[in-house]
Amino acid sequence: MNNKSIKGFCLHGSKRFHPGEAEAVECNTSIVEMEMPEPKEGEILAETLYTAICGSDVSATLSKPNFDWIQRPKVIGHECSARVLKLGQGNHGSLKVGDLFNPVAQLGCRKEDCPACRSGKWNLCPDKIILGYHGNGAFGQQMVLESARIVPFIEGLRPEFGAIVEPLSVVVNAIYSKCNIKPGMDVLVTGCGIMGLMAAELARAAGARVAITGIEQDRNIRLKAAQQRGITTIVVSPEKPLLSHLHEGVRDSRGMLFGSKGKVDLLIECSGISQALAEAILTVKPEHDVCLIATYPNNVELDATHVTRQSLNIKGVMGSHKEHFMIAQKLLVQEAFPAEHYINLYDFDHINDAFADSIRAKTTKAVIKMN
Ligand SMILES: [Zn+2]
Ligand SMILES: [Zn+2]
After folding, report:
1. Is the pTM of this model over 0.90?
2. Domain architecture of the chain: domains with CATH
């Protein structure tokens, strides 16, 4: 630890920017020196190893309306791997100094009378505390954390890959608890941010054939990464929207038609674009599922009568809990999700570049080496 000063990437401004405007980084954030408090009872001090930039960190930096609730200034960041430096007072179970771990992003109230917490689903607790949004988070070089958040690393998990356990755990929650994927299904994923790319990979690992959508700016990086993995890609635009692609016929890498008569078995919406959702639900077969992983900056106008007439099941997915983290760790160690293919590493000194690149969609997943 010596005497090196501890730095953090801090969100302070709330000037509104549009997607793609990387000036938001300089305007709404800054690098700050941090004084680390002593861990209190039930808390630990941790050294942050690798932290990934989440789409929601990008949205917060751009000050999108669905992130207005975050109090500023705040050292953000909730997707990370870390190492225990010091234990506060109290019982920490088998945890010891030097252990590697993931903190769960969402810590429940853990009260007896909270139904969500009683079933271990902290992600659904109305009083949950989100790392990096309610307190300082993982874009600090050190963090003080409740030890209840800790999910110890399983053997063989590399710390740089550990940074993406949290987002992968959310997709695990979606794929395994909500999506009901059967081998041979045609699954459409809308949006090719990392959640979309992860959803595409896990859906395929579950036996589905998968197509993923993006826009023109995604063609050379995010969609290309998917294509290299054998996932079918669709570039949508106002001139050529999703429906006309499917109407004309989308072909997979073997030249076979994707979907049947322009309809798919499952939609996983990861774009967070209201119009994308409104349009994409029109492509789902009757009595099939629509799974929402994204959040939206405004209320979505969609054809609810279509949902009724097609008997569609719309399912939302909020975050993840410890069990999903443990599955995500396994998927990374077993390379069921090929982290190496999707991660772009940056040093902490280049964190502004990493955010700017993320805002401009020049990365698949930016991961910062924090120390
Ligand atoms: Zn996240
Ligand atoms: Zn609770």
Report:
1. yes
2. 6-153+338-369 (3.90.180.10), 169-316 (3.40.50.720)
Confidence of residue 3 (pLDDT cuts 50, 70, 90): low
Q: What is the DSSP string of 100-111?
A: EEEE-SEE----
Task: Give the pLDDT score at 65.
Answer: 87
Longest dimension (CA), the chain: 65
Shortest CA distance to 143 belongs to which of 1, 2, 36? 36
- The yes-or-no verdict on residue 166 having pLDDT over 60 is yes
* Ligand sitting nearest the alpha carbon of 55: 1
- How far apart are the CA of 109 and the centre of ligand 2, in A? 4
How far apart are the CA of 193 and the centre of ligand 1, in A? 11
Ligand that lies nearest to the alpha carbon of residue 163, given by its number in the listed order: 1
Cβ-proximal residues to 100 (8 Å cutoff; 6+ apart), any chain: 49, 81, 82, 83, 152, 153, 157, 159, 162
The number of the ligand nearest the C-alpha atom of 118 reads: 2
pLDDT in tens, 220-258: 999 999 999 999 999 999 999 999 999 999 999 999 999
Compute the distance from residue 166 Cα to the ligand 2 centre, in Å.
20
With 0-12 CB in 10 A as exposed, 13-18 as middle and 19+ as buried, what is 256? exposed
Ligand at minimal distance from the CA of 165 is: 1
Task: Write down the residue that tokens 């826009």 correspond to.
Answer: 215
Interval 90-105: pLDDT, tens: 999 999 999 999 999 9
Q: List residues, by chain if needed, whose CB lies under 5 Å from ion ligand 2.
A: 108-109, 114, 117, 125
